[in-house]
Amino acid sequence: DAVSKYIKDNPEATSQQIWAQLEKIVAERARSATSFKQKQDLKPMLKDTIIQYTYPRLDINVSKQMNHLLKSPFVVHPKTGRVCVPIDFNNVDNFNPLEVPTIGRLVEDLNRTGDVRQTSLKEYTHYFEVHFLQPLERDTDREMQRSAGDLSF
Questions:
Q1: The pLDDT of residue 40
Q2: 69 to 28, 96, 122: CA distances (angstroms)
Q3: Which of 69, 83, 84, 100 is most buried by its number of CB atoms within 10 A?
Q4: What is the predicted pLDDT for the residue at 74?
Q5: Largest Cα–Cα distance in the chain?
Q6: Spatial distance between the Cα atoms of 103 and 120, rounded to a whole number of angstroms
Q7: How many H-runs (helices) and E-runs (strands) does the chain carry?
Q8: By C-alpha distance, which of 91, 86, 90, 89 is closest to 127?
Q9: Would the pLDDT of 153 be above 60?
């Protein structure tokens, strides 16, 4: 409500100015919070806002039909059998979607090697682990350590 009013009163405000206003509102609410619960409820407010406005949106068919879930890594396209893989943005010009592994190729790999770690998905799972999962785990650990024992807002 307060942010909407700020935007209405300041139509030329940049996204940075609007974000600063939101941070100010959260800080003011934290100062005026009278209970522990009120302070705790404010903690995720900024992160929730980030997720709400930056997380990929799903269209209606995604929630109705499983074959629309190609935005998720390692999902198999129902018609082509191609696996949805993470892309290295530093090497995007060399990415060829026709060369990604197919479910048939993965079955052949498994029959040949017997090792799930030695399939044609190896480079993609490695990239996903190194560039997404490991940084996520580090950030989560840091966040948990920072907030451990800190009950103040």
A1: 86
A2: 41, 20, 22
A3: 83
A4: 87
A5: 66
A6: 10
A7: 8, 0
A8: 86
A9: no
Residues in the chain, total: 153
Own/partner pairs for 22-25, CB < 8 Å, 24+ apart?
22/46, 22/49
Inform me whether the pLDDT recorded for 56 exceeds 80: no
Q: How confident is the model at residue 145 (pLDDT cuts 50, 70, 90)?
A: confident
Close Cβ partners of 21 (under 8 Å, ≥ 6 residues apart): 2, 3, 6, 13
Which whole-number Å values give the CA distances from 59 to 64, 71, 76, 84, in the listed order? Answer: 9, 11, 19, 18
Between 152 and 40, the higher pLDDT residue? 40
The residues with which 83 forms a beta bridge, in sequence order, are 76
Of 31, 50, 53, 51, the residue nearest 42 (C-alpha): 31
Residue type, 11: P
Q: Is there a contact between 103 and 76 (Cβ–Cβ < 8 Å)? A: yes
Work out the number of other CB atoms within 10 angstroms of the CB of residue 65. 10
Pick from 24, 42, 27: nearest CA to 151: 42
Q: Which residue has the tokens 């044609």?
A: 120
Give CB contacts under 8 A, 24+ apart, made by 26-34.
30/153, 33/153
Higher-confidence residue of 23 and 53: namely: 23
